[in-house]
Amino acid sequence: MDASVQAPEKASNRQIVGACPHDCPDTCSFVTTVEDGRALRVRGNPAHRPTDGVLCAKVSRYTERTYHPERVLTPLRRTGPKGSGRFEPVGWDEALADIAARLAAIAARDAQAILPYSYAGTMGLVQGESMDRRFFHRLGASLLDRTICSTAGGTALAYTLGGKLGMKVEFFAEARLILIWGSNSIASNLHFWRLAQQARRHGARLVCIDPRRTDTADKCDEHIQLLPGTDAALALALMHELIAHDWLDHDYIERHTLGWPALKERAQLWNPKRAAAVCGVPAQQIRDLARAYGTTRPAAIRLNYGMQRVHGGGNAVRAIACLPALTGAWRHRAGGVLLSSGGHFPVDRATLQRPDLLAGRAPRTINMVQIGDALLHPGGGDFGPRLEALVVYNSNPVAVAPESGKVVQGFAREDLFTVVLEHFMTDTADHADYVLPATTQLEHWDIHAAYGHTDVLLNRPAIEPPGQARSNAAVFRELAARMGFDEPCFADSDEALCGQAYGDAVKWDELLAHGFASLPVPDAPFAEGGFPTPSGRCEFHSAALAAQGQDGLPDHVPNYELPAPGGRYPLAMISPPARNFLNSSFVNVQSLRDMEGEPLLEIHPQDAAARGIASGDVVRVFNDRGSYRVKAEVCTRARPGVVNGLGIWWRKFGLAGTNVNELTSQKLTDLGRGPVFYDCVVEVAAA
Ligand SMILES: Nc1nc2c(c(=O)[nH]1)N[C@H]1C(S)=C(S)[C@@H](COP(=O)(O)OP(=O)(O)OC[C@H]3O[C@@H](n4cnc5c(=O)[nH]c(N)nc54)[C@H](O)[C@@H]3O)O[C@H]1N2
Ligand SMILES: Nc1nc2c(c(=O)[nH]1)N[C@H]1C(S)=C(S)[C@@H](COP(=O)(O)OP(=O)(O)OC[C@H]3O[C@@H](n4cnc5c(=O)[nH]c(N)nc54)[C@H](O)[C@@H]3O)O[C@H]1N2
Ligand code: SF4
Ligand SMILES: [Mo]
After folding, report:
1. Do 395 and 384 have their domain in common?
2. Which residues span the domain enclosing 600?
3. SS3 at position 245
4. Residue 436: which CATH number?
5. How far apart are the first and last CA of the chain?
6. What is the distance in A from the centroid of ligand 4 to the CA of 154?
7. At what angle do helices 151-160 and 313-327 cross, to 10 degrees?
8. Residues 210, 314: one domain?
9. For residue 3, pLDDT beyond 50
């Protein structure tokens, strides 16, 4: 939290209201103080209720990142072998002319050999999903399935509740019981945590459900330290107990749900004893949790994405999302569940992204989780043409994508033409043919949705771009011009794109005046049912899923990789993000890296003793996909049988030039084609 003492303001200083661009549920409003064209500091906007004047430690240091001496300030062209990180500066005109010519030559054969690769380095709708999409749609490039984070849970919510919808975050402060399920809120959802603390001061009980004893788990009243990938079993056992003790809201179930008799039958297969064996927790803990959930009003669940990065992640979210309908928790504004509020935002994506520019073409889709395999595919068969060019922006796939041995091998292909728009020489930028200097949030216009509250935010530029940095939208605008794309939409300015994002659905004047505007969302969205599903009910049973040959009911789907005691890989590994980084962003900011120290593997004293490992030892963590050297920390943050490989370090800061994704797999979740970062078995040995 930013407790820094405020320097006295000069009268000539300007205060510019912007939005935090990072992939974080909190989407804070921030105020930048500018003196003589230089940003002095960024602080939380006290006028924006969800932000409440507070930023996290990372973004409090946004100016340190912006003025970082290693910021890329000119276009760079590769001079050494792929991946060597050797580059020379070139002018924009020369770079853009060459890139346009190279892409045009590939497109003349088959534009599907070109792939954009982007994620949420900025969540801005303009710099993240507007001019870039127009450009690639017009080109006919391969489509990217942007699945690396949230699609298992998002898809599960869509089948169960009808969309990424749920409780309004502010009302968690009024709950009497809060389950913090698969979320290290202190690290990754700080402003929710503040609300949970308010609730607690009024007597609420907080229960954390997480395989790792996180800072959040430490500060809750209870920690249920289950095995990774067993959340659906836990949720089904809770249902079993709700049924057994009749802690049910029969009227709500009758009027607002679908498939109750079938779900009841399913839940009856999951008594606490059976679930306890699967989850690796005491049966009594499950019974107690069921009693608390069944008898406390209002009861709220803050579900987060950590628990859906396993094979059965979709089913687990479906099972948990059924719980509030069983007890009628939705009737109260402080009851229900929240995973994402993203579905409340009326973003006009057709206007921003212009899929009509595909003009009837239907390019293939490549799943970003499987970029390793895609880059190494020789082409042909169902896959289609071999990938010949990649344009990467807002993402650092060499560090964040799973099975990085393959990702690196793919990026190292000398015959692959790679363009990376970046602030810094990341592991991915090191593998580029061209690196193009990008603007940060302090230097460009943007407009935002959020997934942890329901306000739209506008970001105004506070300072001029340093060096020759250009916004992503500007780069794609110029590439479009050089490719001869003359549709009027390619002339829209960044500011005009901000205005198009919501059309008339949000008051532009209000955004310009305050920097944020609240959406009209009812306080208790499902108090009277009204779920936007096909049936209008909370769908315990989904006919749509059954029609696809899937289980229509939620069930426990075991992990792909189960640790086998005495087997080759007896330990499960999870790799949740670090508190002072934002995925792989900020790893190069010295003050934050100092706080994180170095890459660590947390291992339980029992597992460490069995391997002769002490804290501070360098260990080798390995499985069939690769091997990773890291320092061990012997502690009870890890439970027996599970090691925690904290992420997501840049490979080049790792002991042997690798990071934890050397070990993770490219397999996909049951729903939503998502990644399974936390469904991974390993062995650990003293190095
Ligand atoms: N400081 C910080 N904040 C962040 C990020 C960051 O890197 N750093 N990343 C941002 C992004 S992109 C996202 S998606 C979110 C991620 O934040 P969350 O959605 O909270 O997800 P994770 O941090 O991946 O995991 C949360 C917790 O789930 C636990 N977990 C792992 N496997 C399981 C399981 O099988 N069951 C259960 N119940 N729990 C499990 C992990 O140990 C972890 O403590 O946070 C965002 N905010
Ligand atoms: N092992 C493991 N791997 C994981 C996860 C995990 O928990 N464990 N988490 C996964 C999750 S949830 C996610 S969301 C992904 C995140 O993966 P990414 O979306 O790739 O996120 P970052 O690592 O933060 O990289 C974003 C990059 O975008 C750049 N950037 C930021 N703003 C701009 C801009 O305006 N323009 C341009 N051109 N560039 C910009 C930043 O400098 C940064 O290098 O990682 C996934 N990988
Ligand atoms: S990363 Fe999250 S908590 Fe930090 S400033 Fe941005 S939105 Fe707020
Ligand atoms: Mo994410």
Report:
1. yes
2. 571-686
3. coil
4. 3.40.50.740
5. 37
6. 12
7. 40
8. yes
9. no
Tokens representing 238? Answer: 């809770």
For residue 611, is it within any domain?
Answer: yes
β-strands 87-89, 455-459 pairing:
unpaired
Q: Are residues 156 and 120 part of one domain?
A: no
Q: Are residues 215 and 330 in the same domain?
A: yes
Same domain for 449 and 496?
Answer: yes
Same-domain status, 586 and 609: yes
Residue 161 lies in a domain: yes
Residue with the smallest CA separation from ligand 3 atom 5 is: 55
Taking the centre of ligand 3 as the mean of its atom positions, its distance from the CA of residue 220, in whole angstroms, is: 22
Q: Which residues line ligand 2 (CB under 6 A)?
A: 23, 119-122, 127, 148-149, 393-396, 400, 421-424, 426, 438, 472, 575-577, 582-585, 647-648, 660-661, 664, 677
Tally of structural domains, the chain = 3
Over residues 267-302, the pLDDT tens digits come to 999 999 999 999 999 999 999 999 999 999 999 999
For ligand 2, atom 40: residue with the closest CA: 394
317 close to 302: Cβ distance less than 8 angstroms: no
**Which CATH number fits the domain that encloses residue 191?**
3.40.228.10
Q: Would you say residue 11 has pLDDT above 90? A: no
Question: pLDDT band at residue 2, thresholds of 50, 70 and 90?
Answer: very low
Backbone angles phi, psi at 623, to 5 degrees: -155, -165
Residue 272 Cα to ligand 1 midpoint, Å, equals: 26
Left (φ > 0), alpha (ψ -120 to 50) or beta: where does 56 sit? beta
pLDDT > 90 fraction of the chain, expressed in percent and rounded = 96
CA torsion 260-261-267-269 (nearest 10°) is: -170
Ligand 3 centroid–CA 211 distance in Å is 24
Among all bound ligands, the one having the nearest atom to the CA of 368 is 2
Residues 511-567 have pLDDT tens digits of 999 999 999 999 999 999 999 999 999 999 999 999 999 999 999 999 999 999 889
